[in-house]
Amino acid sequence: METRQAAGVLSEARRVVVFTGAGMSAESGVPTFRDALTGLWARFDAERLATPEAFHADPDLVWGWYEWRRARVRRAEPNPGHLAVAAIEARVPAITVVTQNVDDLHERAGSQAPIHLHGSLFAPRCAGTGAHPATFPDVEAAMAAEGGRIPPPRCASCGALVRPGVVWFGETLPEAGLTAAVEAAASCDVLLTVGTSGVVHPAAEIPRIAAGAGATVIQINPEPTPLDRVATLNLRGPAAKVLPAVVAAAWPGVSA
Ligand code: BJW
Questions:
Q1: Does the active-site annotation cover 118?
Q2: Span 15-34, mean pLDDT?
Q3: pLDDT by residue (tens digit) across 177-225?
Q4: Cβ-based neighbour number of residue 106 at 10 Å
C-alpha cells in the first residue's frame, strides 16, 4: 500500500532529492557506520576513530582503518537500491542525489553527480595544507595489510602526513555541496531518505528542510529513526528490496 503511494507521488514529482546514508550500501556488503567495527576493529569506537584527534594521536591506526574500508568498498558492487536511484534519476525532470556515504557505489550504479556531504574514501589529501593532491600507496599492499595498522604516506610537496579525504566529527562539510543540498531540499517536491539513522548533523537537517518547505518526505529504512516523525510515508524494509519495488510501481515495465 505504502509502496504504491510512494510510487504515485514519485511518478508525479518534478523536483526530487534522494538523500542516502550507510544503509543504502549495506546490501553491497559495506557495513553501516555504526556496525562498521567488526572483526579486528571491534574494540574501537567508530565515533572516536572518525575524528581529527584520533588521527593526530595515532595516524597508523586511523589510516589502517580507512585502508581496510577502502579495500572492502573496492570489492563491493552497487546493489539493486543504487540501480533504482539511477533509474529514478533517468525518469524525473530534476533530481539531486545527496549522500553521506564515502563510497562510490552511486557513481558506479550510474548516478551522474551525487553530492558527497562527508567526503570520499578515494580522495586523500595532505593533512598539512589540505591543498596538495595526494595519491594512495599500492592497493594490493593495503589489502595485504587488512586489519592492521598502516603508516599514512607523506605529502610529496610538504612532507606532512596524508589523511583520508572524509569529513570527521568537528570538521565543516564541503561548503558548495552543503549549499547545493540545502537549496535542492528547500525547493523539491519529493525527498526520499534512504538508510540513514538521521542523527548526524548538519546532514540530518536535509530531510527536515524539505519537510519544512512542504515536500513529501518518503523514508526507506528497516528500523525506526528520528526521521519517522518527519516523513510523510515510512517504508519499512531494506533499500535493495524497497527501492526497486517503488520504481517498478512508479514506472511499470521498468526494472531497476
Ligand atoms: C538500512 C539497511 C538497509 C541498515 N536498507 N537501511 C546538532 C546537534 C547535535 C550535534 C551536532 C549538531 N550539529 C553538529 C553536531 C556535531 C556532530 C554531530 O552531528 N554529532 C552527532 C553524532 C550528535 N557533527 C559534526 O561534527 C559535523 N560537523 C559540523 O557540525 O561542523 C560544524 C562545526 C565545526 C566545528 C565546531 C562546531 C561545529 C561533521 C559530521 C561528520 C560525520 N562524519 C561521518 C564519518 C565520515 C567518514 C567515515 O565514514 O569514516 O559520517 S560520522 C558517520 O555518520 C558518517 C556517516 O555519513 C554519518 C551518518 O551515518 P548514517 O549514514 O546515518 O549511518 P548509520 O550507521 O548511523 O545508520 C545506518 C542506517 O541504515 C540505520 O538507520 C539502519 O537502520 C539503516 N539500515 N541496513 C536501508 N539494508
A1: yes
A2: 94
A3: 999 999 999 999 999 999 999 999 999 999 999 999 999 999 999 999 9
A4: 27
Element (H or E) spanning 16, and its range?
Answer: strand 15-20
Provide mean pLDDT across the span 133-158: 73
| Cβ of 140 less than 6 Å from ligand 1 | no
Q: What domain range is 216 assigned to?
A: 1-28+78-118+172-256
CA of 201 to the centre of ligand 1 (A): 6
State which ligand 1 atom lies nearest to the alpha carbon of 66: 50
Distances (CA, A) of 73 to 68, 81, 127, 208, 253: 9, 16, 23, 30, 31
Domain CATH code at residue 208: 3.40.50.1220
Both 143 and 108 in one domain: the answer is no
Q: What is the pLDDT of residue 36?
A: 59
Average pLDDT over residues 97-117: 98
pTM summary value: 0.95
210 and 251 co-located in one domain? yes
Judge whether 195 and 22 are in contact, CB under 8 Å: yes
Which among 116, 118, 132, 201 is annotated as catalytic?
Answer: 118
Q: How far is the CA of 158 from the centre of ligand 1 (A)?
A: 32
